[in-house]
Amino acid sequence: MTKIESKIPEGPLAQKWTNYKNNQKLVNPANKRKIDIIVVGTGLAGASAAASLAEMGFKVKNFTIQDSPRRAHSIAAQGGINAAKNYPNDGDSVYRLFFDTIKGGDYRSREANVYRLAEVSNSIIDQCVAQGVPFAREYGGYLANRSFGGAQVSRTFYARGQTGQQLLLGAYQALMRQVNEGNVDLHTRTELVEIVIVEGKARGIITRNLITGKLERHFGHAVVIATGGYGNTFFLSTNAMGSNGSAAWKAYQNGAYFANPAYVQIHPTCIPVHGEFQSKLTLMSESLRNDGRIWVPKKKEDAEAIRAGKLKPTAIAEEDRDYYLERRYPAFGNLVPRDVASRAAKERCDAGYGVGATGLAVYLDFKDAIDRLGRDAIEARYGNLFQMYEKIVDENPYETPMMIYPAIHYTMGGLWVDYELQTNIPGLFAIGEANFSDHGANRLGASALMQGLADGYFVLPFTIQNYLADDIRTPRMSTDLPEFEEKEKMVKEKFEKLLSIKGEHSVDHIHKELGHVMWDFVGMARNKEGLQKALDRILEIKKEFWTNVRIPGKADGINLELEKAGRLADFIEIGELMARDALNREESSGGHFREEYQTEEGEALRRDDEFAYVSCWEYKGDDKEPVLNKEELKFEFVELKTRNYK
Amino acid sequence: MEKTINLKLKVWRQDGPKAKGHFETYEVKNISTDSSFLEMMDVLNEQLIQEGKEPVAFDHDCREGICGMCSMYINGHAHGPDEDVTTCQLHMRKFKDGETVTVEPWRSAGFPIIKDLMVNRNAFDQIIAAGGYVSVGTGGVPDANAIPISKEDADEAMDAASCIGCGACVATCKNGSAMLFVSAKVSQLALLPQGKVERARRAKRMVAKMDELGFGSCTNTGACEVECPKGVSITNIARMNREYLMAKFKD
Fold first, then answer.
1. What does the pLDDT look like over A266-282, one tens digit per residue?
2. Count of CB atoms within 10 A of residue A84's CB?
3. Residue in A338, A381, A580, A643 annotated catalytic
């Protein structure tokens, strides 16, 4: 088995990052100008990295599939961003943020990475304020905080319910300043379709111009993947329609390890599914759990009457309501981590207490908060979310409880990276949601924004230099090299093949089929039999796709169906690897719940003696089984414990 | 409760920027009133694919009203007949069974059509690149609480910053003016101490870029504010005019 080298620096936990920075190699300003860095993606991680690298003097080429960097799906993050500022003086510290993140991730992440994340979290808030991000403030003029799941302190900074938007616009504006100064060459409506490896190192990418259809070659001394997660494997998710796992998948197919693909986050507070034409699921921010109380009827007959439309939730007496999170987890109550809250909702609905027309919904009720604080206070905190809910569901959440149900939201798994955020392919880096590094088996709320910006502003710009310092004598390469030629030819043939199938089913039709299989067997609760069935079904879907997909039009010019088909081809394979990883991991940890491994009370049962490792899957060729490598997780500073939110 | 409706759609089809466009009429049936407008368009496209025709090209992404990508001009209104929503959050319960619905792209000199309902809004990026930021690099900044900012200013800056860059304001304006978009960014940054340092330079550069890119001038009709899905106020335009004049006086 290949040895996995995570390159964790020596020294005590709190000194590791400082030690690293003191000893890493740097690139001098004159040499920076001679080095090209490709950054794929313009979300929080991509935009912040591209801007920071360009400010330092590197020549950056930045790519996005959207018409503008500002559209990246980071924009949709609602609730907030964590930092260990301890402004509210409620006992927070870098160590506590580190500890909460390790514990929230169910002890499946690397200590050193998570500590570094907590350590740089404070600089992110400083940076964003300096950029003019309008964070919420108290009357005294100082920054406001709120609480999120999995924490007993208030460490979340926010800009109404649009925190992701404001942070992304901050990073986008920093990026556009560099575009204006000529340091970033920005390519919009351009999709990565292959990665070019020259003599074992990542040296470029092949892209497809989504307007002209033209394939283009780009050289970079290093390539950074910042393209987000693969949640859309499930078709229905809170991800944007265009969010996809293809760039990460190309990295995998070129030899980069794919780590922990089974770790998927199911967000407990989404608007429930309404019908077969539904295209996406809308999240209701976790911050709502600060003031909303989650319940279902105590009596089955009440739940049945509600489903039949004969009873209204407001008519159910207090003593007939089951506030099941407060009942099961008195210490954290409605603020338990996402995986715990999601499973508890599924448990109640499966037991027959679910509400809504489908029975797949629970209530999130603001009545007590409105009685206590007044409607205006609730409107000030969550006004835009309430408005969004009303537009979608056509019910007024100030008057009747919201209905929510879990949905696929975030993928903790992703490209394996070492402490320097480098994959096992030299020169290929992965940042933000695209890597696996910091969230273990479950991500805490308000930590995605923190990690994306930590990687982009404060980690990668240092660590990438340690690699590039050895590359200052490498001149820019010609894209006429056979390595580029060969990859471009491969892509061209793939698109031609897809277009030549001319089958019966649209891309979306097949994608929905895949989504159903994933949700039923690789979703919130998994078991051996189901996962084996999923693997069989996914193979059938793969065959169906490659023999029966219908893509109108041609490869030249705009072809939205062809774009979707290329992404679906990869989603099918990602789904297969997710099921394979879930089957291998015979324990329950965080977002991965195996029904065979639970306590008598139905809580996740981790098996640290056998599974305290990162699964690093290695590609061996299409139709060949991938090889599992393991990075053992060593816990030197925290003690492995069963998570307890009771 | 869920209902379904049938609709006749008149959709703008145009092969490319230089091609001549025309309306095509389609029928869609059994559309759930709980669906969004874009989900209805998905049904239409599925139907076209089954008929061996090319689906309608339109921009969309997050489908929760925040990315600013969706951009349809429906029955004479940017983002359609509902208030305070983007096209993706417009729901079919706002339409009547049997109704004819006209769907067009944004039409403005600043936003050339790419194909069907897709337009090129690159001009907005160029305006931001001209000065829509605080010129601060990564690192070396003071503690976030070093400069208190009054809650009123922070809230007002947030109101302006909530612009999603969709371009409904430009599409709605009879002059094709981008004043609401530009003024929202100028206002946000002028209201905050971090942005005050370069307020004059910013206002001048952003306005100059806007003029250069062929957007029309503002005649205070206020139509932009009415159609803005995020309720960005035209008081921002007044503030930008002050910022701009002050900057020019200094010269």
1. 999 999 988 888 999 99
2. 22
3. A338
